[in-house]
Amino acid sequence: MGARDDSDEAYVVGLCNQVLGETALTQHRFDWLRGDPGVGGRCVRLPVDGYWPGHQLVVEYRELQHDRPVPHFDKPDRLTVSGVHRGEQRALYDGRRDTEIPAHGLRLIVIRPADLDADGRGRLRRNEEADLAALGRILARRSDEDRVTDAFRTWLLAEGWTPVDPTDRWTDLEAVRGDERLVCEAKGRTSEKGIDADIAYGQLLRRMTSQDPRTRYALVVPSSSVKAVERVPAHVRELLRIEVYEVTDGNAVRRMTA
């Protein structure tokens, strides 16, 4: 096992894999994320700690040296191709990641030792239960659920719907089109597809306060969760005025039929 495999960074990325239900591409390099030109004018591609394509998400784990001077890491007596020492270059490249990753349509989440169970030197205690809970909170609404919601909102607009402020503040998305109203619950990729599908149905049931037949309900899920959602028979969904929409990995939207 290499040093990186046993690092806090690898530990955090591994826990994120569990939360997201997808395995990251580690030390991934995008062609559009590059460092400053070196000898011969070549710009190397900068790595990111973890990239989850299905979630369109990048996670960076930034240890203490990213936020404060640490001579051992900064090498203040040695200049880099950027014309500054390593610590200043690290801050420069972190800023470039912070700008370029969202600019290219990806979500960026930065995690620091203080977000997890760490000692005073910023070393993680590897308290997996506590760290998983913390990461679940950090990633919960900044991951694939947002992608699914955004894709469905775009589709609704193209279909002539107008998003409105939800009647219930916990509703993910609500839209109107003429006399029609659609109340939507969205879910992202998850490692607990069946449980999350059952929860989503329960959330929709609690929001069925209107008896107006022109009000319908939508369960919007990624392709990976369609089978779990379809465990509720089509005739039951029809009685409850619940429609199921699939959002593919390419952000296409399809209404599921019986």
List strands and helices in order, with pairings.
Blueprint: H1 8-20, E1 25-34, E2 45-52, E3 57-61, H2 71-74, H3 86-103, E4 107-111, H4 128-139, H5 144-158, E5 162-164, E6 173-177, E7 180-186, H6 193-206, E8 215-222, H7 226-229, H8 234-239, E9 242-247, E10 253-255
Helix pairs in contact: 1-4
Give structural attributes.
six-stranded mixed beta sheet; alpha/beta; Endonuclease, Chain A; Trna Endonuclease, Chain: A, domain 1; 258 residues
Task: Give a summary of the structure in a few sentences.
The chain is an alpha/beta fold and 258 residues long. 33% of the residues lie in helices and 23% in strands.
What does this structure look like?
With 258 residues, this protein is α/β, with parallel strands linked by helices. The chain has 2 domains: 4-140, Endonuclease, Chain A, CATH 3.40.960; 145-255, Trna Endonuclease, Chain: A, domain 1 (3-Layer(aba) Sandwich). Helices cover 33% and strands 23% of the residues. The protein has helices at 8-20, 71-74, 86-103, 128-139, 144-158, 193-206, 226-229, 234-239; strands at residues 25-34, 45-52, 57-61, 107-111, 162-164, 173-177, 180-186, 215-222, 242-247, 253-255. The strands form 2 sheets. Strands 5-6-7-8-9-10 form a 6-stranded mixed sheet. Helix 1 (8-20) crosses helix 4. The longest helix has 18 residues, at 86-103.
